[in-house]
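[Solved] Which block belongs to which protein?

Original post:
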Amino acid sequence: MSPVAAASPIPAAAPVAPVTPASLEALAQRGRPAPTDFIRVQLDTGGIAAGATEVFESLRDAVAAQKLPLPVLRVGSHGRSWADPVVEIRAAGLAPVLYGQMTPALVPELLNAHVRERRLLDDHVIATGPRGTTISVPVEHLLVRDSGPGEGKTQFFQISFSEELKRRGLAATVQVVRALDLGVYDEGVVVQLLPGGVTYTNVLAPDVARIVERSVQQRQVLDDLLWKQPELQARIVLRNCGEIDPEEITDYLERVDGYQALRRVLALTPEQVIAEMKTSGLRGRGGAGFPTWMKWDLTRKQPPGQRYIICNGDEGDPGAFMDRSVLESDPHSVIEGMMIAGYAIGSTQGYLYIRAEYPKAVERVERALQQARAAGLLGKNILGRGFDFDAKIRLGAGAFVCGEETALIASIEGRRGSPSPRPPYPSVRGLWGRPTAINNVETLASVPAIILRGGAWYSGYGTETSHGTKVFAVTGKVKQAQLVEVPMGTTLRQIVFDICGGVLEDREIKAVQTGGPSGGVIPDKHLDTPVAYETLQSLGSIMGSGGMIVMDKTDSMVDVAKFFLKFCVDESCGKCAPCRIGGYQMLQVLDRISRGRGAAEDLVILRRICLAMQKGSLCGLGQTAPNPVLSTLRYFDDEYRAYIEGGPSYARKMARTATGGAEAVPTPAVVTPAGA
């Protein structure tokens, strides 16, 4: 479990001009550059696994061959993993359009249709926001999508709109396009007008003529059809993902206010920075929810001497890819956040602890560090303010337990990655015995935005006790597995159904598991629970780092509990007996129950062992490993008893019932998008 000493060699970054306070001030005064035409390909690990590299190369070659004045750019991911590979185009005087599920074979048609003829491709367009409420310019495209079960009316309405446009002599100027996704679900036929984004829902056949007459010809909005629901997502952590080239510091500097927060911070005292973080209410997004300002303040107040800041990128939950996506898509925001934290606590050295299984993230972070050094943003006397700071990468060797702070510290030091008793906490005695602040990727990525827009702005999102936004990787039996970023207080139902489109094959949802292997299973009756630290804990789950797995009625809760417990048993460091022995013993009991050999007293045994692990385990892994078992016992006790009384045949019966009589074998719901 020891780390590799350093990241693999990365090709030298392109020459970077030094950054000065004056140049940053000039960029701030200039503002963001005017939009230009482009083709962007989202090249994160998930996209690459789905074929985005081949799409990128095909686009680059075709654009060069046709001598089109369009740069083909590499960007990170917007988070729509279900639609990979994703391409965004701004050209031919059209607003930016997202295309999903692209292939190299579609490249010639895409360029000819979109760039030369101003037409969009059927079955690939993804709606972008914000949605409009007025029609101020001529309508050029009608996007059509049946959002109901089966989605069978899309083509009918495409034909109906096309015929109506033809009848009115508008077929040459307005195109009707079958959309891949319009971001509205279970609202009948959905129609979006481009440009502008006015969106209509529950459109019926009689509405076709009046949409064309009133909205297309007369530019009037039909209030009875207008979709008025506010946007559920708020991109703070993901604000730059899919917008910039993660391998070019110039994009970060010139297009998204990069390192402006650092410039502002260096004109403040560390105490002022910590006070702003206190106002924001930001809590650690790694799972524990400890107030970020308090951790920084405690570290700063230790006796003078070397202090350290560590970015915890050791993301290991099954189905989770939040940190990986941010590191791959926007590495400079994490580095800038780390530098601000370093300034606040009085540290001159930072470490980014990243899983070795994330080679693309490691490569891009290392390149970002090289470019920041070349620009004078890492090193001595940064921006002439007397602030010294540098950062290095250390690779984790795949041990889940190294996500725990003291185990992570041991791993960086070259020791076996196992937890140590606390107190003392790392803020008092951490890396090499020195005060150390440890924040995860999402926490640090939030910091520059908070500094630039203010703590009060950030605290305006969320609930009274859980401020800001949270990124979730929603996977499992869900139609559109993806990253979502929502304000705290958004409900589980809104995330699963309103953002991710609902359950695969329109089956009935059974539960949602949050918090990774250490989290709990939340049944469908609690889907309207607002997502916050306290509310999830009251349901027997945790926020965790942001994994969210959706399960339908074919999923066996006994098998789900056994899957997550086995993961924790395999990943236990074995240092303490409650975790090492208790986890194994519980796994044996669960296996016995799932094979139809359990007894009623096994449920008592499970609860007794769970309590012992919670009370006696050394670290959070052992203390929370019982959560999947306890939560499934709490909400699905009848299922355990059915296994005990009916044996494995119960599982087969349950699956047949959920699928309307068809044979199906219940399987654990851990399904991840390609490359995730």
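(Second protein starts here: sequence line, then its structure tokens.)
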Amino acid sequence: MARAVAGSRALLIEVRLVAPLYHASGPWPPAPFRLFQALVAGAYGGRWAGEPSGYKDQAFRWLEELAPPWISAPAARDGRAITYYVPNNSIDAVGGDPARVPEIRVPKSVRPRHILNEPSILYAWRFAEGEGQAATIVELADRLHTLGTGVDAASARAELCDWTRAEERIAAHPGTCVTPSLGGAGRAADPPCPVPGSLRSLQRQYADGVAQFTKVPRGRSTVTVLTRPQKPIFRTVAYDRPATLRLFELRRTGAGPARWPVEDAVALVEKTRDAAARLLALRLPDRAALVERFLIGRGAEAADKVGRIRLIPLPSIGMTFTDPAIRRLLLAIPADCPLPADEVAAVFPGLDLPLSDGSDDLHLAEAADWRMVRHYGVAVAGKLPDAPAQAWSTVTPAALPLDRSGGRDSGADRLAVEVQAAQAVRAALRQAGITAKPTSIRVQREGWGRRHVHADSFARSPRFPARRLWHVAITFAEPVSGPIVIGDGRYLGLGLMAPGPAQVRLAPPDADALRFRIRPHEIALRSGDAYALTDALRRALMSLARTSDGGVHPMFSGHDEGPGPARSGRHAHVYLSAEDADGDGHLDHLAVIAPWRVDRSWQPDAEQRADFARITAGLARVTAGPLGVLSLAPPELMPMDTARTWTCATGYRMTRHAKGPRGEAAIREDVALECARRGLPTPKTVEVVVAGKAETAPITITLTFQAPVRGPILLGRDAHRGGGRFRGVGRA
């Protein structure tokens, strides 16, 4: 049977637990496959074991064909672990003979979940065909008796309705709705869902369990042997559990938008949180204790973290000289919060905030413009698409459980402290629920942006002393979406991160030779503008490659510390070029090539590769003086030739003046030295064509190698500016 397409009808099954406890392991809410198992157990077991099963089989095979259901469930928190001592299951070690199993008991830990509201869970399947099978499921749902372990007694009630009615029921249900993600495929930890064949696998598992003990002859006697039942068939599905987001602006009565100093972020959150908590407690008097725990955090335990409401002050960022004051507050209500999201959000519009001078003319207003949220990597349904990034850095410093000395430390001491801080950052990521693996972590006291505030300015004794505040930069192994807030002050506005320091868009993975298409431009870019464009490109990259001490990364500046050029003995800075890819006589692409791709005599380390990817990924525009501001498309991998014969695409310029006349012999010698410096094989032949006798006359070189060579090849004095760029002739 083909999978049913989405339709206008809905199968609703509401499961109600007898007690507000749930003992089974696995994700919350209970997975669709667990409900499927419970329905099958109730339909076929007990006093219904002997009745005809054909109509039931048909109904459950129809159900396992449907797409995963929507689920609405109340919030739940993990309780304390309880240890039971049970017989050790070591029968495999004795050949499956139960008589030979020693009476050994082993500890088994069980951590029940406490359901914080009404213990009712709603499942909604959408379907187009199969009204008769759906009606059978409605009838069989009355037989459900447990959901989870044997102690999780439950009952179920099902109904059929239009999907519009189902959405109304879900909206009115006292729980949070989670829906299957568009990708569908899940990880091992995601909820299992039934698939075609699930019913048959459960029936086979039951049959195997009934016959798992069999007697087999052994010598003059018989022994009982255990055969393990086969495992059921299902698939895991990723479910979206998005937080409810609301954005508010700071405003003064009759005076328009207001600003709040970024270094006072903690005070702003505390004032807003306390004022909102007072109003919410009045609106929900029967849930005042939950307001204390999940909004203020008073009395909250570790299990409550997934449901804690967050108020995130958003400093203004996005441009180099933007004033980083706070003008907006982002309210994030997790899906696991036991407080109704609509009730929580309703207390913030118009909320008056008392100031330190006693005045209360500052209040919150719903924000219509969500563009600032985009700078923090946040996706908002219907407003902003997903914008994940790999590189992130703090805008407000993170409070880490690590003290740094206030005196002058040696370099070794500082390194040791920074290593400990990196370990603390990893712990902070786990506590914030971020599972992506960091590939690099950097910490410092100074902000990462030009206008970012020093970490010490956020100090608030005794809770957030200056010695515990750090600005953090993290690169993840995979793109991550915001908001990301880490550290001990993450509920008070500290540890807020944004994509960067300069990265918003991602380069292709493992890319070290990139090409950027120049978007349509009002000024014609001709071949004579190539060097002007590469000089402008170098300046743009240097602006992205700023280090924390105000310098520029040597890979992009070509300089070590001080004004002189780098003297590493190798060409360890990037190669740039402007290209006419379509051959129409106009430059249409800019290329950035990592130094190790051209100079094959050395290999970079992981940090150098990461730095190249991070900095080039932030390249979006180039200011080229009279040529205007060039807007660049996202980077793509640069195509590479592999050939035996290579000829100049741009003119070759000798690396030094010849001692004698600039003849072909001197040029061949210079080219041979350049090939040796770049780690290239010695050319078999070097053909030289000089277009004129002047010292500056263009030189065209054609190289032939003994074996095919893979590009890129850039040689000569202007190689880092796109001069001496070769293209392959023919195929390898």
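Accepted answer:
You had them paired correctly. Confirming on the second one: The chain is about 25% helix and 25% strand.
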